[in-house]
Structures are given as structure tokens and as C-alpha cells.
């Protein structure tokens, strides 16, 4: 009689975590950084159609790394959650914290009960009336949630890029400064010089607290070109 194969719960959770981390590490990083008028998001993404940074609701945005089909399903679910809650109650009742909690439950349930975890890492951000009111939550593949302040990096080489970001960031920076910093951070390599990224290789968006209702907007390539050319000229 064949004995059943036994795997301890600890080993099973470790294997799932390793599997998810490897999938996430293969994705290009996303940088989220606060500036004087809001929150900026940047990633290396040459596709004009498949976005890693998206609007969820009036003042809430979503960024992700990992498997596109998995985080796209989560994004769509987040939009539906926000629309339903805003319609059923009030638009002010839709918050980044509530959305992060909903995502955490989904990610945690899949991690513990399904055959494989979701290979995704998320950021849910909400811009407030002032920098002190901004909310940024990072969610891991296992449903854990971290409340971030100032800046956060997702994806491969996150620790290396976060160190570089920490060195260059300070509170109250202007949009042009944080965009240049984010692009510089995204070009950082473990070994070798910083890669120069062209505007066509980038996806950049902001939550702008000065906009009246819908705070999310994408920065077009023309604007990015102006910013990066200015940066090169100053250098």
C-alpha cells in the first residue's frame, strides 16, 4: 500500500511564498513617490495598451507588478467595488483603506486555500487635501498590508531601488523633480551604470490633489520628454 505524501503546513506556505516571489521578481518595478501636489507613479512599460498604473475612483489609483492577467482581474474587481460602494452610500465612503482591506481578503484567501497564490504585488493610493492626508498601501501576494509613507517600490530589485529612492527623495519635491528621480531609480542596475530610459519606454501617472474631482491623470510622452531633456540639460 502506498503511503500518502505528506508536506508540513510550514513547508507548503514557504513553497507558495517562494513561488509568488519568483513570479513577482520577474516583473519590471513600479515606483510610487509623493510630491508637493500629490502622488506620482512610474514604471518601465513600452506598451500603450496594457497598463500597470490605473485609476480606480475619483482620488484613488492602483499600481501593480506580476502577472498581468491576475492583477488586471483585481483592478477590475476594485473598480466594481468602488462604483458599487459609491452608488450605494456616498462617493466619500470609497476609500483606499477600504479597497486595500478588500484586496487583502482576496489575496489572503487565495494564498491559503487555492492550488497556487496570485503572483502579484499591489499599491492602492489615495490623495488627500494635504500631504498628511495621503494614503498609500502596499499589498503582498499573501494578503499582508503595509501603510507606506513618502515612497515605495514594487517588483524586482525592490530593495536596491528603494535605497536609491531613499537617497534622493525629500518631502515637498516638485513634480518635475520626482519624475526625474523615479526615472533615474528605474534605470538603476545591480552592476553597471544607470540605464537611460526614453519617454516611450515609460508609463507615468499622478494623483493631483489640485484637480477638482478626478485626481488621476497620465503624463504624455511629450511632457516626459520635456522633463527629461531639462534634466539632461541641467546635468
From TrEMBL:
The formation of the proteasomal ATPase ARC-20S proteasome complex, likely via the docking of the C-termini of ARC into the intersubunit pockets in the alpha-rings, may trigger opening of the gate for substrate entry. Interconversion between the open-gate and close-gate conformations leads to a dynamic regulation of the 20S proteasome proteolysis activity. One of its GO terms (molecular function) is threonine-type endopeptidase activity. PROSITE patterns: PROTEASOME_ALPHA_2 (PS51475). SUPFAM superfamilies: N-terminal nucleophile aminohydrolases (Ntn hydrolases). The keyword Chloroplast does not apply. It comes from the Bacteria. One of its GO terms (biological process) is modification-dependent protein catabolic process. Keywords: Cytoplasm, Proteasome. Pfam families: Proteasome. Gene3D superfamilies: Glutamine Phosphoribosylpyrophosphate, subunit 1, domain 1. GO terms for cellular component: cytoplasm; proteasome core complex, alpha-subunit complex. It is found in: Cytoplasm. Pathway: Protein degradation; proteasomal Pup-dependent pathway. Component of the proteasome core, a large protease complex with broad specificity involved in protein degradation. The 20S proteasome core is composed of 14 alpha and 14 beta subunits that assemble into four stacked heptameric rings, resulting in a barrel-shaped structure. The two inner rings, each composed of seven catalytic beta subunits, are sandwiched by two outer rings, each composed of seven alpha subunits. The catalytic chamber with the active sites is on the inside of the barrel. Has a gated structure, the ends of the cylinder being occluded by the N-termini of the alpha-subunits. Is capped by the proteasome-associated ATPase, ARC. NCBIfam families: 20S_bact_alpha. PANTHER family: PROTEASOME SUBUNIT ALPHA/BETA. Belongs to the peptidase T1A family. This is Proteasome subunit alpha. The lineage of its organism: Bacteria, Bacillati, Actinomycetota, Actinomycetes, Micrococcales.
Amino acid at each position: 500500500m502506498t503511503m500518502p505524501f505528506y508536506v508540513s503546513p510550514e513547508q507548503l506556505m514557504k513553497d507558495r511564498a517562494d513561488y509568488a516571489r519568483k513570479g513577482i521578481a520577474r516583473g519590471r518595478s513600479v515606483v510610487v513617490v509623493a510630491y508637493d501636489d500629490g502622488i506620482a507613479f512610474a514604471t518601465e512599460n513600452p506598451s500603450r495598451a496594457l497598463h500597470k498604473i490605473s485609476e480606480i475612483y475619483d482620488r484613488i489609483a492602483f499600481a501593480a507588478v506580476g502577472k498581468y492577467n491576475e492583477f488586471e482581474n483585481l483592478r477590475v474587481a476594485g473598480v466594481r467595488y468602488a462604483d458599487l460602494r459609491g452608488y450605494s452610500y456616498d462617493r466619500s465612503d470609497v476609500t483606499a483603506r477600504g479597497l486595500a482591506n478588500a484586496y487583502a481578503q482576496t489575496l489572503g484567501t487565495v494564498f491559503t486555500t487555492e492550488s497556487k497564490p496570485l503572483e502579484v504585488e499591489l499599491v492602492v493610493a489615495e490623495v488627500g487635501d494635504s500631504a498628511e492626508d495621503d494614503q498609500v498601501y502596499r499589498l503582498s501576494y499573501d494578503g499582508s498590508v503595509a501603510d507606506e509613507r513618502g515612497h515605495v517600490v514594487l517588483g524586482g530589485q525592490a530593495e536596491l531601488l528603494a535605497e536609491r529612492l531613499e537617497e534622493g527623495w525629500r518631502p515637498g519635491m516638485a513634480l518635475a523633480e520626482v519624475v526625474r528621480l523615479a526615472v533615474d531609480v528605474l534605470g538603476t542596475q545591480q552592476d553597471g551604470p544607470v540605464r537611460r530610459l526614453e519617454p516611450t519606454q515609460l508609463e507615468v501617472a499622478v494623483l493631483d490633489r489640485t484637480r477638482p474631482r478626478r485626481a488621476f491623470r497620465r503624463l504624455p510622452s511629450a511632457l516626459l520628454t520635456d522633463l527629461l531633456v531639462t534634466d539632461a540639460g541641467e546635468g
